[in-house]
Amino acid sequence: xxxxxxxxxxxxxxxxxxxxxxxxxxxxxxxxxxxxxxxxxxxxxxxxxxxxxxxxxxxxxxxxxxxxxxxxxxxxxxxxxxxxxxxxxxxxxxxxxxxxxxxxxxxxxxxxxxxxxxxxxxxxxxxxxxxxxxxxxxxxxxxxxxxxxxxxxxxxxxxxxxxxxxxxxxxxxxxxxxxxxxxxxxxxxxxxxxxxxxxxxxxxxxxxxxxxxxxxxxxxxxxxxxxxxxxxxxxxx
Amino acid sequence: xxxxxxxxxxxxxxxxxxxxxxxxxxxxxxxxxxxxxxxxxxxxxxxxxxxxxxxxxxxxxxxxxxxxxxxxxxxxxxxxxxxxxxxxxxxxxxxxxxxxxxxxxxxxxxxxxxxxxxxxxxxxxxxxxxxxxxxxxxxxxxxxxxxxxxxxxxxxxxxxxxxxxxxxxxxxxxxxxxxxxxxxxxxxxxxxxxxxxxxxxxxxxxxxxxxxxxxx
Amino acid sequence: xxxxxxxxxxxxxxxxxxxxxxxxxxxxxxxxxxxxxxxxxxxxxxxxxxxxxxxxxxxxxxxxxxxxxxxxxxxxxxxxxxxxxxxxxxxxxxxxxxxxxxxxxxxxxxxxxxxxxxxxxxxxxxxxxxxxxxxxxxxxxxxxxxxxxxxxxxxxxxxxxxxxxxxxxxxxxxxxxxxxxxxxxxxxxxxxxxxxxxxxxxxxxxxxxxxxxxxxxxxxxxxxxxxxxxxxxxxxxxxxxxxxxxx
Lengths: 237, 216, 247
Fold this sequence. Notes:
The structure holds 3 protein chains of 3 kinds.
Chain A: H1 2-22, H2 26-46, H3 51-80, H4 83-89, H5 94-123, H6 132-156, H7 163-189, E1 196-198, E2 205-207, H8 209-235
Antiparallel strand pairs in A: 1-2
Helix pairs in contact in A: 1-5, 2-3, 2-5, 3-5, 3-6, 3-7, 5-6, 5-8, 6-7, 6-8, 7-8
Chain B: H1 2-22, E1 27-30, E2 33-36, H2 40-67, H3 70-102, H4 110-131, H5 135-159, H6 176-215
Antiparallel strand pairs in B: 1-2
Chain C: H1 6-9, E1 13-24, E2 27-38, E3 42-46, H2 53-61, E4 68-73, E5 76-77, H3 82-86, E6 89-92, H4 104-114, H5 120-130, H6 146-158, E7 164-168, H7 176-191, E8 195-199, H8 203-208, E9 212-217, E10 220-226, H9 232-246
Parallel strand pairs in C: 3-8, 3-9, 6-7, 7-8
Antiparallel strand pairs in C: 1-2, 1-4, 4-5, 9-10
Helix pairs in contact in C: 4-5, 6-7
């Protein structure tokens, strides 16, 4: 157990240090995110859409696409000098490598959000009404979901020919079930649409903040565990 | 054996289609307006088939990772491809029937999103397959993606419930014969799917054999 | 000189490759390869490109799973107890497996951490001095020349004092001086009781740090001998002629 945390920390710290030194991805992520927000703001003006309606969607679009950059970096840095073999030769469990990479991606997204979220709030004139805690919670859950899938898929497409494009397709498709409650959670939180629960059974409408967050948590748990278990198969040759 | 299955599938398909056209309209009540819904004979079995393909994908994925037998990989690939075909038909028929009743080809509603994502998942699987050269690595990666794709489907069905559904909840069959026709068409389309998977597995097997003979 | 059969010569085998086969698709790369390596032996595996040398090393290192057969390292099955066997193993290949953005000592400390090396700072300092890299300690690994990088790769591979060092084409891209330095480092590793298995297409260099040589061809071991039993120059000559014909 001790070794788990030691190796986890070692890989995590190594990745963070490498990123801080090379400044390979974080600046690109932030600039891409800002551009997306900016373009969407112009779109909302041109289409005279309510900024309150668009804000949450813009947030997620920016996270998704900028997140892809962080995730692609996860294993492309390992591939350069065949470092991934070095990691696999060490007595580290592949699951530990996955968790470390996942944490790195989550941290990168958090740093990214620290810049882009205020920008969205300013340009889209959003107001949260004091529900900061809930807002951060939803963002973090979204981060975990985006990164858990992205980290696994980044390792998956390591040796394929069209990496970036492929990663974006796979990640965006598989993230659909998470994006629906994620977007709705923010819409409920901002009070843009009313919460509504109707009917019973499988097809009942479950449109409330609580259920959306519930689905987010379920998604995060299911996919983080599944990816952690499957990671070993993905990195071996 | 296979010829028999082909024959049986053909007979059932023709039979169920004939029944569907002759047994009169299936009716659904939507916003207090009664609408005809003969589409159920094709649309619903297709949805069942497409969903089942993902179950096969899961089984094939686990099977491959467990045993490393290429056969499981072929089954997974075949079911993804067949799933793609059925998901295409599912979305197409849905779209065609949506237009006259909802005045729109497509609208973000839980079940419409779900079937669209089914289609995208199949496409993503097939694209992923073509992008990896090494057969063993391809099989392993596709197995992993198949398992993830399967997990995605129930999450999708569940989480889409946060939004309003405009899709009709259920249809009423006027007579027992209509029920029978629906059952028959479901069986025939399932058989068709099975047949297609079988053929595709054979094709993949032979292709792999030929490729290895050519390179060696 | 007493000539004995291979199996008698080794009392205690540290690497035991038992009828290993590996095929990519249906193309066999290794076909029933058997190999026993004793403690402190140095084995050089020669062969033309695509003979299966690297594949064999990757299978021994556990990076690749054999299609058939098994590999034992220090008596332990490689696949079954990866944690124990991995700590007995160091690997260098033509890629350094080092992070260009970290400094030399950071790189080594990182790997020391993964292998839970005791007193890692002392060990890293020791190694860097031993390999003549101490003055570059705080430089980025990315600026190193090929020869220095390869030395650092060896430091990474032996940081946890492994019993076995696997070297896949370690001489690739090195000049004569760097090659000689590498040979002396590998020699020292063996003198300290380490077992070395290396592949090389440059037979002459390979023979300088090994006491056993084998030739891999058409997925099988076609020749093997102790270097003390053969005329090295003659062997190199024969091998070159043979490899030339194969190509």
